[in-house]
């Protein structure tokens, strides 16, 4: 959970009104990408699905897509406890805003405050372990403290912020929702102040404290004396105001609690009943309860330990049968003579088509299994070991909407891929034929579209290795016996 870098504070001070809070997205100024290039394509892909991914994953999602110069890192988050719909409605315009405001910058970010607090950032380099202190956005709200109120405010505000900052960097305050603290520091019970501090996941507690401390300093220099304000940085967010905002304080008791006070001597009072005689042995009810509870906990932990031990033993027994052990070049390689026999020596009668990387043939193995084989062009320039390594990786992709790679064959300069056979050829065989396209009624087309989408989603998001398919067309979409 990304609560590890959230520190939110609520205390009493002053009550004022405040309108909608917003700021423009920040665009990087040093590096740019080529429109419609690989980076731009990957950016459009991840931004288009970011809102749904963040809202469906408890308000936090980060991913990297692509390789080399086209690789993009992206993060989206909402304040903890935000309603998924509200979270999505905040992330979506944030994603669109970055696309429109930063059309070709490789590093951009935006903190949005619209019914909830959310954050969107993307870059061509990882930013999860960096403490980016710039650029900075600072805003203050229009009303100011006047006269004696300003002096009282300054003393209280400074002491309160220092009290909070000493706790931002302490891990025990970053573990769960208990880091929302209520503090009474005002002369009147009706006066309140609400402060929220948020760091992005991935940075250390020290870096979080440093970022927030700098933000408080920036606010004091630019906006001291105003009733409320905000400071935005690439890795942290700071806001204080005189009323609850963004749903951050909805789930908590409105009754203020006091900050830790200096210990005061406790007056001694006579005991209501005399202590037992020194030689009289007594067992209190509390001691009996403690003994019983301890015994129950011990039994539960013992049973849990036995269950875990048995599962580990079962895992050790099954371990030799994992995919990583079974999927090796040796287990996937076919003999060339078997391939020749299966295709009748690559007979023209068995040829299914010609693709950009070679011809495709239908074959029949000795066990009557129908297969499809792609005979790669001999001028591909790919080394044998590189070819084998890629085959092993692709063979681990398992999804009902992907044609399964069964194996390969290498013989001299011959490189052959062996796939499961799908009898209805490719989508273009039906789609562009005046007669056969009548078989594609709306329900069938809808099912085909759904299958394509699920297959692409698996490759882009759910597979072990992120793969971006850049050659999707009717001729590369194959149909099985049920036209799926």
UniProtKB/TrEMBL annotation:
What does it catalyze?
L-threonyl-[protein] + ATP = O-phospho-L-threonyl-[protein] + ADP + H(+); L-seryl-[protein] + ATP = O-phospho-L-seryl-[protein] + ADP + H(+)
- Which residue ranges run through the membrane? 287-309
What GO biological process terms does the UniProt entry carry, in alphabetical order?
defense response to bacterium
Signal sequence annotation: 1-23
The entry marks the following residues as binding ATP, namely 374
Do you know which InterPro entries this protein is assigned to? GNK2, GNK2_sf, Kinase-like_dom_sf, Prot_kinase_dom, Protein_kinase_ATP_BS, Ser-Thr/Tyr_kinase_cat_dom
Cellular component terms per the entry's GO annotation: plasma membrane
Q: Does the keyword Transmembrane helix apply?
A: yes
Identify the residues that the record assigns to the Gnk2-homologous domain, covering every copy.
21-127, 133-245
A single GO molecular-function term is: protein serine/threonine kinase activity
Which stretches make up the Protein kinase domain? Answer: 346-484
Task: Cite the residue spans of the region called Disordered.
Answer: 256-280
**Top-level division of the source organism's lineage:** Eukaryota
Q: Which Gene3D superfamilies match?
A: Gnk2 domain, C-X8-C-X2-C motif, Phosphorylase Kinase, domain 1, Transferase(Phosphotransferase) domain 1
Compartment(s) of residence: Membrane
Protein's membrane topology:
Single-pass membrane protein
Which CDD domains does this one have? Answer: Gnk2-like (cd23509), TM_EGFR-like (cd12087)
Keyword tags: ATP-binding, Glycoprotein, Kinase, Membrane, Nucleotide-binding, Receptor, Repeat, Serine/threonine-protein kinase, Signal, Transferase, Transmembrane, Transmembrane helix
Q: What is its EC number?
A: 2.7.11.1
Recorded protein name is non-specific serine/threonine protein kinase
Q: Which organism is it from?
A: Eutrema salsugineum (Saltwater cress)
């Amino acid at each position: 959970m990304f609560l590890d870098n959230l520190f939110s504070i609520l205390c009493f001070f002053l009550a004022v009104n405040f309108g909608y809070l917003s700021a423009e997205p920040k665009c990087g100024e040093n590096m740019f990408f080529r429109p419609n290039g690989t980076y731009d394509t990957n950016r459009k892909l991840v931004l288009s699905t970011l809102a749904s991914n963040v809202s469906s994953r408890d308000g936090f999602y980060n991913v990297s897509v692509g390789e080399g110069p086209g690789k993009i890192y992206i993060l989206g988050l909402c304040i903890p406890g935000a309603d998924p719909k509200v979270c999505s409605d905040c992330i979506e315009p944030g994603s669109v805003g970055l696309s429109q405001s930063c059309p070709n910058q490789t590093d951009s970010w935006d903190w949005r405050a619209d019914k909830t607090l959310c954050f969107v950032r993307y870059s061509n380099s990882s930013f999860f372990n960096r403490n980016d202190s710039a650029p900075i956005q600072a805003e203050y709200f229009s009303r100011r403290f006047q006269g004696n109120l300003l002096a009282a405010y300054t003393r209280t505000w400074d002491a309160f912020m220092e009290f909070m900052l000493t706790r931002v960097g302490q891990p025990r305050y970053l573990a769960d929702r208990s880091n929302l603290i209520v503090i009474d520091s005002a002369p009147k019970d009706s006066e309140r102040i609400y402060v929220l501090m948020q760091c992005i996941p991935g940075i250390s507690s020290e870096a979080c404290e440093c970022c927030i401390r700098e933000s408080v300093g920036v606010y004091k220099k630019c906006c001291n004396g105003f009733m409320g304000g905000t400071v935005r940085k690439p890795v942290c967010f700071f806001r204080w105001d005189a009323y609850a905002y963004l749903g951050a304080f909805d789930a908590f008791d409105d009754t203020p609690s006091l900050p830790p006070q200096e210990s005061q001597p406790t007056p001694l009072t006579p005991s209501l009943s005399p202590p037992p005689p020194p030689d009289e042995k007594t067992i209190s009810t509390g001691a009996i309860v403690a003994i019983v509870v301890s015994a129950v906990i011990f039994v539960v932990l013992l049973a849990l330990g036995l269950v875990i031990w048995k599962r580990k033993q079962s895992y050790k027994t099954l371990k030799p049968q994992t995919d990583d052990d079974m999927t090796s070049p040796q287990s996937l390689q076919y003999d060339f003579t078997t391939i020749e026999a299966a295709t009748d020596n690559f007979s023209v009668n068995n040829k299914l088509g010609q693709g950009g990387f070679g011809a495709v043939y239908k074959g029949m193995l000795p066990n009557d299994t129908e297969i499809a084989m792609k005979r790669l062009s001999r001028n591909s320039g790919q080394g044998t070991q590189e070819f084998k390594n890629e085959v092993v990786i692709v063979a681990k992709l398992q999804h009902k909407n992907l044609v399964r790679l069964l194996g390969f064959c290498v013989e001299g300069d011959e490189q052959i891929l062996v796939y499961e056979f799908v009898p209805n050829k490719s989508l273009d065989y039906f789609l562009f034929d005046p007669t056969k396209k009548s078989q594609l009624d709306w329900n069938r087309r809808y099912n085909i579209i759904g299958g394509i989408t699920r297959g692409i989603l698996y490759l882009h998001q759910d597979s072990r290795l992120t793969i971006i398919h850049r050659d999707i067309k009717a001729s590369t979409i194959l149909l099985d016996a049920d036209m799926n």
